[in-house]
């Protein structure tokens, strides 16, 4: 069982409880209070110090963006971005503002933000919030909102050992010097995936990083090292709401869930760490960038998920500390309100992070497969969907009637293909138990219900119900029951109320199998029932006639058609289809491995309660697992090209993505939750963005499409009526950008997405050569109903030079569904640049089709 279902449960949970804005009662006047995120007009420090950083760091791109004016108090003329005095100065400004505005009233400030945004989070009444918003120095007041959390083999599947790692000097150095910041559920610092005990290749200290590690009893001094270079936690909003449980959630960077440990290991876990689960060895694990450094900003929690006020504090700190990459396996619980999805405190602080040169990766969300189910929105964020890879662990059982039934379970098989008697739990009750006493007796959770002699030496059949999904019953406990009864193994059949969803292969210590399909479960039960002999008067079974053997599922097999876009991976375009600005940004940007991913697990992690407790590794699925794959690969790109902007890294990943699966066919996308492999068709850019990540070619992109902070501002300012919102969130005046506003299709992205093609349109792209001299020819396939031309059709481009491409589109039919095409640039030195094209045709005039 995996991440996916868990996410659904948390979602319902959050809707039920935590989306209510009010959580505390103010005892003085009974008014309800809530957490608000307040932004001030004064520029945050990164907008000034971001410039310093690029110089002092020596690795980021100098001066790509316009410098904004920032009036520093004269006493702070000399401070650097790492100077904490500036942060406390800003905090005092915030405190005195609150004191002045809310004179003598009760309120609680939770955070002062100063690096990416200048503002604070505060617990106040609505009336007080209004008072604050009327102040001249306050630009914006937003209600806090909730968010949720959306590998042994994937390095090989992505070709890293021979490809990308070899370009960065092998796994011994791949990613070295690059710091990845994780905003997640924390980390287990004792896990070998994050040790720095490597005497052959000692870890360097990343000089540009200035983060610290909290020290608490459950995160003692010495938890951090040269691998795990920073660790903090942010929980003020959660604590204020009274839902923080320190025994489950840990008031420290320690991971009480497991998710954060897993995602950090996928991106940056040490190389060659043996994966041993339930006593079985499943190979060695490695992160994508095994030598990059990990900085942890815990803002999500086991019990409740997280809140934007805490997430923004985490992002602000990560940027201030000097991380190179931020990886977010979290998404908002619902579409942010307002004139466009981009205008929410998380995306806005990430825009500021991108301005400071930080590459930002976010999970697309597990809200697929319907169109417009995307949970990650902005063009400055790199959004990653989840695809399968080629490894599977299949299990099966053979029945006495020679029927083979497939199932799941990382379990050994029964001995020597010998057949064993099948005994259903409800036919094995002892005299003291009846099904009426315990309606869940079929779930095999309590050995004292059963007759030892009936079960001993036989296969016990148990029901896998929705209670397993909820963690009320567990596989572990059923296996314990079977062991106590001296059973040889357990067969779980699917309760008909659990609709056919994908089960993660569950590790089992003894022979076992879960029959995941309800139809297969039915045929198993039919065979079983038809083989029983029952005494007419006592109604007791007098003979168990059914037999079976369990084949076992410990061996991986690598024959899956892969990659394939998983049904749960959120789909584009952006949900604001009525607003072309949103739908005209291609999302997701890319897909990467996200299904059945082995990686480190927190020893005290309690997520997926049913089988992972106490394990050091877990196999998880979700876009949460896909995003850190890309964060790790981005670290490899950053190591090889230290001067690449965030947009250039994004471009390198996108233009080089693969379009084909391992059988040479088009990458497929699953399109339904039930029986996903029977409901699939070739993936479109709204399913997979540019395609499936190709690590080898992303490190050698040839040409890139670059964009800067100013370009994103020109885009935001081009949205109808956005000026006050832009001013409120960023403190920037759109007057500066009115000369240069662009629509989504005109942003210099490595994709073209047009939400409404009315007759004709021309878009331009500027590409830059980051490789050697090369000649390119241009090819394309037009979307259905569009006539397309690209100019020039051939060009020579010297190293470092730029080239403008013009793309001409005419609509030839009227069609309200999206159609897709592609432009390819084919270089004579082997570079291939892939540009997906998505167009919805909306023609107001009647055309005569000749
Ligand atoms: C700090 O300020 C002093 C005098 O204002 C100047 O001489 C010095 O170079 C400054 N240091 C830095 C690092 O800017
Ligand atoms: C901008 O902020 C001001 C002051 O807080 C508020 O009155 C106004 O409604 C905000 N405008 C928008 C578009 O959010
Ligand atoms: C470091 O590794 C060496 C050998 O691999 C081992 O003997 C030593 O105990 C380890 N030290 C720590 C602190 O883990
Ligand atoms: C906190 O979690 C512990 C452990 O799960 C539980 O026993 C306790 O009741 C919880 N406390 C609250 C206040 O929910
Ligand atoms: C896995 O790691 C262990 C110990 O680190 C090592 O002895 C073994 O050779 C590795 N196996 C493979 C297949 O790399
Ligand atoms: C099952 O197949 C085996 C050989 O393949 C055969 O000997 C046996 O009779 C078959 N049993 C049934 C019940 O069909
Ligand atoms: C039935 O219950 C009695 C009394 O609780 C106990 O002594 C006996 O062992 C139980 N029988 C079985 C088969 O569990
Ligand atoms: C990835 O890129 C490399 C180098 O361009 C190429 O050889 C390989 O075939 C690509 N892989 C896939 C799956 O497209
Ligand atoms: C906008 O354009 C006008 C005239 O073309 C020019 O005078 C002005 O300086 C421009 N403003 C900015 C901010 O570039
Ligand atoms: C499409 O373009 C035509 C001609 O330029 C214009 O009259 C019409 O209003 C446009 N329709 C839409 C829906 O924008
Ligand atoms: C689009 O239509 C115009 C006018 O009919 C024509 O000149 C142009 O060549 C067409 N462009 C394409 C790409 O078909
Ligand atoms: C388009 O044609 C249909 C019938 O062919 C007609 O009913 C409709 O009014 C026409 N629309 C316009 C905008 O001419």
Automatic annotation (TrEMBL):
Source organism, top-level taxon: Eukaryota
Domain Inhibitor I9: 36-149
Primary localization class, coarse: secreted
Region forming the signal peptide: 1-24
Any one GO MF annotation of this record: serine-type endopeptidase activity
Source organism (scientific name): Senna tora
Family, per entry: Belongs to the peptidase S8 family.
Protein's recorded name: Subtilisin-like protease SBT2.2
Active site: 184, 259, 624
Keyword Secreted applies: yes
């Amino acid at each position: 069982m995996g991440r996916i279902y868990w996410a659904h449960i948390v979602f319902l949970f959050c809707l039920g409880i935590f989306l209510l804005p009010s959580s505390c009662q103010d005892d003085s006047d009974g008014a309800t209070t809530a957490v608000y995120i307040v932004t001030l007009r004064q520029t945050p420090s990164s907008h000034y110090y971001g410039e310093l950083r690029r110089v002092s760091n020596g690795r980021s791109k100098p001066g790509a963006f316009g410098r904004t004016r920032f009036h520093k108090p004269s006493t702070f003329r000399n401070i650097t971005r790492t100077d904490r005095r500036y942060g406390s100065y800003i905090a005092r400004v915030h405190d005195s503002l609150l004191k002045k505005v809310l004179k003598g009233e009760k309120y609680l400030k939770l955070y002062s933000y100063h690096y990416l945004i200048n503002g604070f989070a505060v617990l106040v009444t609505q009336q007080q919030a209004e008072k604050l918003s009327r102040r001249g120095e306050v630009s914006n007041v937003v209600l806090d909102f909730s968010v949720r959390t959306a590998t042994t083999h994937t390095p090989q599947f992505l070709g890293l050992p021979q490809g990308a790692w070899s370009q960065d000097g092998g796994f011994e150095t791949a990613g070295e010097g690059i710091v990845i910041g994780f905003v997640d559920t924390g980390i287990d610092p004792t896990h070998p995936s994050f040790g720095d005990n490597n005497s052959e290749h000692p870890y360097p200290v990343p000089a540009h990083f200035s983060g610290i590690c909290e020290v608490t009893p459950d995160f003692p001094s010495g938890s951090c090292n040269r691998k795990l270079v920073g660790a903090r936690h942010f929980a003020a909003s959660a604590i204020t709401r009274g839902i923080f449980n320190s025994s489950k959630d840990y008031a420290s960077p320690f991971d009480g869930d497991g998710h954060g440990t897993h995602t950090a290991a996928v991106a940056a876990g040490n190389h060659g760490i043996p994966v041993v689960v339930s006593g079985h060895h499943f190979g060695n694990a490695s992160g994508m960038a095994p030598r990059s450094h990990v900085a942890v900003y815990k803002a999500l929690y086991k019990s409740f998920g997280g809140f934007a006020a805490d997430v923004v504090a985490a992002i602000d700190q990560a940027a201030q500390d000097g991380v190179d990459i931020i990886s977010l396996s979290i998404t908002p619980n619902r579409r942010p309100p307002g004139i466009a999805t981009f205008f929410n405190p998380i995306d806005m602080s990430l825009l500021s992070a991108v301005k400071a040169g930080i590459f930002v990766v976010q999970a697309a969300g597990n809200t697929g497969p319907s169109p417009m189910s995307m949970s990650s929105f902005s063009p400055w964020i790199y959004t990653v969907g989840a695809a399968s890879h080629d490894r599977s662990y299949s299990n099966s059982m053979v029945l006495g009637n020679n029927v083979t039934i497939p199932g799941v379970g990382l379990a050994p098989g029964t001995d020597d293909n010998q057949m064993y008697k099948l005994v259903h739990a409800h036919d094995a009750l002892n005299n003291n138990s009846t099904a009426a006493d315990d309606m869940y007796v079929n779930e095999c959770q309590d050995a004292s219900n059963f007759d030892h002699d009936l079960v001993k030496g036989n296969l016990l059949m148990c029901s896998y119900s929705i209670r397993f999904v909820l963690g009320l019953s567990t596989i572990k406990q059923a296996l314990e029951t079977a062991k106590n009864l001296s059973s040889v193994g357990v067969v779980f059949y699917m309760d008909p109320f659990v609709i056919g969803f994908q089960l993660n292969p569950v590790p089992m210590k003894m022979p076992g199998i879960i029959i995941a399909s309800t139809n297969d479960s039915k045929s198993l039960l039919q065979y079983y029932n038809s083989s029983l002999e029952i005494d007419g008067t006592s109604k007791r079974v007098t003979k168990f006639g059914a037999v079976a053997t369990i084949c076992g599922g410990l061996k991986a097999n690598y024959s899956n058609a892969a990659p394939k876009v998983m049904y749960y991976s959120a789909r584009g375009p952006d949900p604001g289809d009525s607003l072309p600005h949103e739908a005209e940004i291609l999302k997701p940007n890319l897909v990467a491995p996200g299904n059945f991913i082995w990686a480190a697990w927190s020893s005290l992690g309690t997520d997926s309660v049913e089988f992972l407790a106490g394990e050091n590794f877990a196999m998880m699925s979700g876009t949460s697992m896909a995003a850190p794959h890309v964060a790790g690969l981005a670290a490899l790109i950053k190591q090889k090209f230290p001067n690449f902007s965030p947009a250039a890294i994004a471009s390198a990943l996108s233009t080089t993505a693969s379009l084909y699966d391992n059988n040479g066919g088009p990458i497929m996308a699953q399109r339904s939750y039930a029986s996903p492999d029977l409901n699939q068709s070739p993936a479109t850019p709204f399913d997979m963005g540019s395609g499936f990540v190709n690590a080898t070619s992303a490190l050698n992109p040839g040409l890139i499409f670059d964009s800067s902070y100013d370009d994103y501002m020109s885009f935001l300012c081009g949205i109808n009526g956005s000026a006050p919102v832009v001013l409120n969130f960023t403190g920037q005046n759109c007057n500066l950008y009115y000369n240069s506003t662009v629509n989504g299709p005109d942003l210099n992205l490595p994709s073209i997405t047009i939400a409404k093609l009315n007759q004709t349109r021309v878009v331009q792209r500027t590409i830059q050569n980051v490789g050697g001299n090369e000649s390119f020819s241009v090819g394309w396939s037009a979307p259905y109903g569009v006539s397309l031309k690209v100019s020039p059709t051939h060009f020579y481009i010297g190293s470092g030079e730029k080239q403008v491409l013009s793309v001409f589109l005419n609509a030839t039919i009227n069609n309200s569904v999206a159609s897709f095409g592609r432009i390819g640039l084919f270089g004579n030195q082997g570079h291939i640049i892939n540009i997906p094209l998505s167009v919805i045709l909306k023609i107001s005039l009647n055309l005569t089709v000749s």
